[in-house]
Specification:
There is one protein chain. The protein is mainly alpha-helical. Helix content is 63%, strand content 5%. The protein is built from 38 helices and 10 strands. A hairpin with a 5-residue loop joins strand 1 and strand 2. The N terminus is likely disordered.
């Protein structure tokens, strides 16, 4: 997969994976926060780093602050019963005076001395960011600090709860004799630090600010500019670090003095000027001072200190190449705290190796600072300067921002896939460790990019990035963050009207709540997910049926059926139900999952030729209702599965087992008031043998002739299916339905030549109908018995049975069945040699069929009439009868009527038209 923009923006994170501060942990060493508002961007990102021992920290030239360092170390030494907090501020609010460097140096030295076994953390509060909304407040920092200090257990979801956990952790460390050091950098106001300061004197805090802050119980240390000797020493030592053996500062002492004065003896400006000197071996300190003096003259409107810093900025920028300058200006487009080569490459549109070289060059020019292995950041003053240049030069910020968002979206999606083990052969990351390392490195940038995407109105981009955050929290099992990120993703998906994103976020929210032990809330969230997908399924079914009203609002604006096929939507709904069902069954109304699964099965009918989607939905419905103890729902789903599962080549297979399970689930004797409710189950159980009968009639005749032989054949399966259906109706005392089933079994058995089964079936039906006083029903059973007798060759019994049946049926107004019974009687008379009686019976049968509009019955009667006439020597009349039958058969809607007629006529040797 390549890191390219465009269609990849629609990549769906495939992991499973509000107000207040939300904790994000970027990895072992870096902790950041996300802050959610109900609408708009998520807000400031708090970055919390562990303080490394001096030997492990990045090497920097730090001179001229020995007295200040000793003062700070004396205050933060836990062995001294001194004030617990020191506020390091700048004289006259100067930026670039070295506050952060002093705080970092002292903290690293304290950690090296083993003073803080309870932990030491560094937090950038960004209190001088141009936009006050970007100032990190305590509620943004509590969560990351808890993680960085090793809090065990879930972090509270509300800032007040996080504050309580934070101070409880500090109290526990104090009681254990394990002091903690908190470094709060770049505080712009007392409100940014007050709630973060430790309450126990066992702990220490260092606060840096450009202004003197009124912090209770603190000691203030104001930093002035470096002394002239110290400023010159910084230039000498920094140049020796950048260019070992360089003697220009010793050769041009006067120029070095001028250079330090023009830099206002501010460490930041001195570092930049020295980097310029190192970059040009032909330049002397004096000539660089001349250039810097020219820059000063253009900035007379500024105060001395600010003018010194800005002059070095201007001069340093003018010395950059075109590519270096472009990258420098575009770096602030990245909203996060640091940038890596691959990300910077997307900003400027260059390959990572070339961009890496540019970053190193900018670092040597001291317009960038190292933020870790392969990471770079801009000093806040330098960032403001770059933003001014960005506007001045008219760079295409939108294009750069879009490239950046694409980069984070694509890489985040690839990282999630790798963590889930679903990456393909073109995976961006080699393994899960490399993906996780990237995530940990880039998490604060991704979270900041979410804010940028919202600000730019790119809710789709914000959603994709937020989904990555959800997946990462789910992967780590960080429950509070998982829930918060899922809620944010849900809001983004609703704004984007993205049904896939909405379903995904709702599912994650439900699972996060469940994992946190909040089962009632999880069940409610799962129920909301069910209701959402119910609407999607109904709309999909309306689309498939073409029944959506033309004037109604297009629901695709809310549920997006146009974004996928109907089958795809149904599969998505099914997947959502499967994932949420365990949560729903625990505490919420279980019927919600069941009802939705049934709707999915219904909607899939006709859309899925193999029936696999309907079958899968029904199986899930069985599992859902079984777990919930809802027996009737379980029986209904089982019975429906018997009608959906495919029939195998030798028997009924799985389908038959589902019918039997439905019967087992059904109570032996449902309560009288429940019998009507169970009648639907009985009807579905009874539909299964009818399904088998239809399948049997569709199979070739030769395959059915001996299909009743053997214990495990399609016919024996049918017998068992009919018997089960009879038993089901017996449990609700519906004997009329039992009689109908016995009659159907008798007819099927006769087709298979199973005369004993056929006789028994019709005889059971006759007994029941006689007991019920159902005369027409009794007539149908007698007719069935007559057909069996005819097939057995017991023609005399067949005559008696068929005539009795016809009389009962005709008296009851059932002329169709009466006519067919007489046709059977005609064939029985024919076989007894009673040709006149056969002709009379057939003629009357044809009359009854005509009255009943029974074309097939009339054709059959005319064929029997013609046969009686032919055998009695009346061949012309027989031919007329057969030709009439053939004409009717050709006109019949059922083509099988014509084919059976043609076969009969061929058998008797009649070939007339």
């Amino acid at each position: 997969m390549t890191d390219a923009p465009g269609p990849s923006r629609r990549i769906r994170m495939d992991a499973r994976a509000s107000g207040g501060g939300r904790v994000l942990q970027a990895g072992r060493d870096l902790h950041v926060s996300e802050f959610h508002q109900h609408t708009g961007a998520p807000g400031p990102v708090a970055v919390v780093e562990p303080v490394l021992p001096a030997d492990d920290a990045l090497r920097e030239v730090f001179v001229g602050r020995s007295a200040e360092s000793q003062a700070v170390l004396a205050i933060i030494d836990p062995a001294h019963d001194a004030s617990a907090t020191v506020v390091v501020s700048a004289v006259a609010g100067l930026g670039g005076i070295g506050k952060t460097a002093l705080a970092r140096s002292c903290a690293a030295e304290a950690v090296s001395r083993g003073w803080y076994p309870g932990g030491a953390v560094f937090v950038d509060l960004d209190g001088y960011a141009p936009d006050p909304a970007d100032h990190v407040q305590p509620e943004h920092a509590f969560g990351p600090m808890l993680h960085a200090l090793g809090w065990h257990g879930p972090v509270d979801g509300h800032p007040r709860g996080q504050a309580a956990q934070y101070h409880r952790l500090l109290a526990e460390r104090a009681a254990e004799g394990r002091p903690v050091l908190v470094v709060l950098d770049n505080a712009g106001a007392t409100t940014q630090v007050a709630d973060l300061l430790p309450r126990s004197r066992a702990h220490r805090a260092v606060v840096t600010s450009r202004h003197t802050l009124a912090v209770r119980g603190s000691r203030t240390l104001e930093l002035a500019t470096l002394t002239e000797p110290d400023a010159q020493a910084l230039i000498v030592e920094q140049l020796a670090l950048l260019r070992p053996g360089d003697t220009r500062t010793r050769d041009d002492v006067r120029g070095t003095v001028r250079l330090s004065r023009l830099c206002g003896r501010l460490p930041l400006a001195l570092h930049i000027a020295t980097a310029l000197l190192a970059a040009d071996p032909a330049q002397t300190p004096g000539s660089l001072a001349d250039d810097l003096e020219g820059a000063h003259s253009r900035l007379d409107i500024l105060d001395d200190g600010e003018r010194a810093v800005r002059a070095t900025f201007e001069l340093s920028y003018r010395r950059l190449t075109a590519d270096q300058a472009t990258l420098f200006r575009l770096l602030p487009v990245n909203p996060g705290p640091h940038v890596a080569a691959d990300t910077a490459g997307r900003l400027i549109g260059l390959p990572a190796p070339e961009t890496r070289r540019l970053l190193h060059q900018l670092g040597r020019a001291h317009v960038l600072e190292r933020a870790g292995e392969g990471l770079w950041r801009q000093h806040d003053l330098m960032r403001v300067f770059a933003i001014e240049l960005l506007g001045r030069h008219g760079d295409d910020q939108n294009a750069a921002a879009n490239r950046l968002l694409d980069h984070y979206i694509i890489r985040a999606a690839a990282a999630v896939r790798t963590l889930r083990g679903t990456s393909g052969p073109s995976a961006v990351f080699d393994d899960a460790d490399s993906a996780l390392a990237w995530f940990e490195r880039e998490q604060p940038n991704i979270q900041a990019a979410v804010s940028m995407a919202v600000t730019f109105g790119d809710s789709d981009g914000a959603l994709r990035l937020q989904e990555a955050m959800v997946a990462l929290h789910a992967h780590h099992g960080r429950l509070t963050e998982w829930e918060s990120a899922a809620r944010t993703a849900l809001r983004f998906a609703e704004d984007e009207r993205d049904p896939d994103g909405r379903s995904w976020a709702m599912s994650n929210l439900a699972h996060a709540l469940s994992a946190a032990g909040r089962h009632d809330e999880a069940a409610t969230a799962a129920l909301e997910l069910m209701l959402f997908h119910r609407e999607v399924v109904r709309e999909a079914k309306r689309d498939a049926d073409g029944t959506r009203p033309a004037e109604t609002e297009d629901p695709s604006q809310h549920h997006g059926p146009a974004r996928a096929t109907t089958r795809g939507l149904l599969r998505d709904a099914l997947r959502a139900v499967v994932e949420a069902r365990p949560l729903l069954d625990r505490d919420a109304p279980a019927h919600a999952a069941y009802d939705l699964l049934i709707e999915i099965a219904d909607a899939a009918t006709g859309l899925d030729p193999l029936g696999s989607l309907s079958t899968q939905a029904l199986r899930e419905a069985v599992a859902s209702s079984h777990r919930a103890g809802r027996r009737r729902s379980e029986a209904l789903a089982c019975a429906r599965l018997a009608l959906t599962e495919p029939l195998d080549g030798t028997g009924t297979g799985t389908a038959s087992r589902w019918q039997l399970r439905a019967l087992r689930v059904m109570p032996p004797r449902p309560a009288p008031e429940d019998r009507d409710a169970w009648r639907e189950v009985c009807a579905l159980i009874a539909a299964f043998p009818q399904r088998l009968a239809l399948a049997d009639r569709a199979s070739p005749v030769g395959d059915r002739l001996h299909a009743h032989d053997g214990p495990d054949t399609p016919f024996t399966d049918s017998v068992r299916a009919f018997t089960s259906a009879v038993e089901a109706y017996g449990r609700i005392d519906d004997t009329a339905a039992q009689a109908s089933l016995w009659g159907e079994l008798g007819g099927l058995a006769l087709q298979h030549g199973a005369h004993d089964h056929a006789w028994a079936g019709h005889h059971h039906a006759l007994n029941i109908r006689t007991a019920l006083g159902d005369l027409p029903g009794r007539g149908r059973s007698l007719a069935g018995l007559g057909e069996v007798a005819l097939a057995r060759g017991d023609f005399a019994k067949a005559v008696d049975l068929c005539h009795e049946a016809s009389a009962l049926l005709e008296a009851g107004g059932v002329t169709l069945d009466a006519g067919r019974a007489l046709t059977s009687a005609a064939y029985a008379h024919q076989n007894l040699g009673q040709l006149d009686r056969a002709a009379d019976a057939a003629r009357r049968a044809a009359e009854l069929a005509l009255a009943a509009h029974d074309t097939a019955g009339r054709v059959s009667a005319l064929l029997a009439f013609g046969l009686a006439l032919r055998d009695s020597g009346r061949t012309k009349r027989a031919s007329r009868s057969w030709r009439q039958a053939l004409r009717l058969a050709k006109a019949a809607k059922d083509p099988s009527v014509y084919h059976s007629t043609r076969r009969f006529l061929d058998a008797v040797g009649f070939h007339g038209a």
